[in-house]
Automatic annotation (TrEMBL):
The lineage of its organism: Bacteria, Bacillati, Bacillota, Bacilli, Bacillales. This is Quinol oxidase polypeptide I. Belongs to the heme-copper respiratory oxidase family. Keywords: Cell membrane, Copper, Electron transport, Heme, Hydrogen ion transport, Ion transport, Iron, Membrane, Metal-binding, Respiratory chain, Transmembrane, Transmembrane helix, Transport. Pathway: Energy metabolism; oxidative phosphorylation. One of its GO terms (biological process) is respiratory electron transport chain. The chain crosses the membrane at residues 20-41, 62-81, 101-127, 139-162, 189-215, 227-255, 287-305, 317-336, 348-368, 380-404, 416-440, 452-473, 493-515, 592-612. PANTHER family: CYTOCHROME BO(3) UBIQUINOL OXIDASE SUBUNIT 1 (PTHR10422:SF35), CYTOCHROME C OXIDASE SUBUNIT 1 (PTHR10422). GO terms for cellular component: plasma membrane. GO terms for molecular function: cytochrome-c oxidase activity; heme binding; metal ion binding. Residues 40-558 form the Cytochrome oxidase subunit I profile domain. It catalyses: 2 a quinol + O2 = 2 a quinone + 2 H2O. Its cofactor is Cu cation; ferriheme a. It comes from Paenibacillus aurantius.
Amino acid sequence: MLDKIKDFASTFFVTGDPLIYGADVSIALTMIAILFVLTYYKKWGWLWKEWLTTVDHKKIGIMYLISSLLMLFRGGVDALLMRAQLALPNVEFLNAEHYNAVFTTHGTIMILFMAMPMMFALFNMVVPLQLGARDVAYPFLNALSFWLFFMGAMLFNLSFVIGGSPDAGWLSYPPLSEMSSSPGVGQNFYIWGIQISGIGSLATGINFMVTILKMRAPGMKMMKMPLFSWSVLSSCVMIIFAFPILTVTLALLFLDRFLGAHFFTLDGGGNPMMYVNLIWMWGHPEVYIVVIPAFGIFSEIVSVFSKKKVFGYKSMVFSMMLISVLSFFTWVHHFFTMGAGADVNAFFAISTMAIGIPTGVKVFNWLFTMFRGRIQMKQPMLWTLAFIPCFVVGGATGVMLAVAPADYQYHNSYFLIAHFHQVLIGGVVFGYLAGIYYWWPKLFGFKLDERLGKWAFWLWNIGFYLCFMPQYALGFMGMTRRVYTYGWDMGWAPYNIVSTVGAFMMGIGFIFQVWQISYSIKKGDRDLTGDTWGGRTLEWSIPSPPPVYNFAVVPEVKEQDAWWDMKEKGLDKIRPDHYEPIHMPKNSSIPFIMSVFWFVAGFGFVFGWMWMAVPGMIGVFGCLIARSFSYDTDYYIPAEEVRETELALRGNV
């Protein structure tokens, strides 16, 4: 019996690597610390009532933000491990199998478990406030979306210490992801972690599209809507059409692995190129799904910190919506070298270049907005200004890659790695960090320290260029992706050393940001006005942090920059004569419980344990039935309580 237990444990847990043992110890210590703190300070009830069961979009946004920062740390550690391995020739820090696992988890985590939740954090933190709404269209679904993402992310990350990480690349091309090349359970962790979180992502897209279309304040016509909300709408359109493709693709791959189907196996009559087409039909819109909201963030920041109305509002709206359409007509540029033919390659080369036009429109609009503006060099504006040259280089190298004949040289090389990170770090990460700095005072009631923030800013930016500029040269010199070691004779060492130094500088920049947040919690400047930056949109018209109901009285919008217009007319000082009871959704435990059942079912499917998967799915359907019979789902905040809250927050009524 003891021998059977030992055999099971040796295959169930990942063993034999000091890094894994270190992770085991850190996970155990972290769990013990969390349990101790919650028990010692008697916070279990508070955790359940205030967070695990909340449907408040602001708290959900904060949970998304915390999760995304944790995933940024995890994905960043993976990046540093890879750079340490590649710093010098013939390094034996990671073996080939471990390196494959690390770059697979790095890409997957950064795109799906860091960028997506950071984007959804900003959706939740900002959009209802910009629209003058008291919550999203479907608060229950919003909570369920977060917990599905969270459980999917935990399931995926569990593979690091249980069963083994996936190692077929972050897009898991067959045949590497089929049973013949990946017989372990790592690939199943990949499939089910993404499937569960992907359901939440799709639900979020639907939720915020309905919120934007149906819950705007009176008078806020579509063409008076803030540009960030427009960018969210554009992103949601792409989510709704792209994520079902991902769901179906991974379901077919799982059927190949679990039931012996042959959708993507050549020897069984399938075609791996079908998988490549399907995954990129999701994958390229996904790039724009995460970058378009960053464009919306920059539009808000440039306008506020230049003290000017954004230049070319209508062209900005049109360009974002055009990108959401064109993004579905560019996916083949990811495999120009795979023999699709000259006509197909020419079409997708032209469509790829065409999508650069609406992107360029926005850059010029931001520059014209800043022209002769009274620019304030605060942290959000610093990140915005850093983005512009970075994204211009990323766009230019993207056009180079769009030239099909030239792509035969660039494809699969470190030139492509540099371009990809130039766009996703310089565009997405810089954009979301700008948004976090900008809206942080609104959600938390205090600013993040400027001095520490500038240290982080310069470390991030200098480190970024040191890390990725040499990789363009390495690509031209013939260094391909997935190389885990190389010889001194290649001449790549100097560029890789510089690249590794840059990566560690970005890591230090992240540490400064953690320090900045910790320091600012106690010593950051408090936002006593609710309008710390002199904002132009409705979120700055309410106290910081906002009350649970957001707006005591739903505002009426007259102009494009609604709050700026109110301030210009002196309407910002007027307080209502009376208040009405406010209708709000009640907290619910069902989203959290249902996501736990999804986790159980996913874990069962990973190992092929039907005794676990079937009860998990029964629990999921049981939660759906329980929800359908839930009638006590809302309540009213009395008018007197609203008055007292406003008096406490504003100091006068």
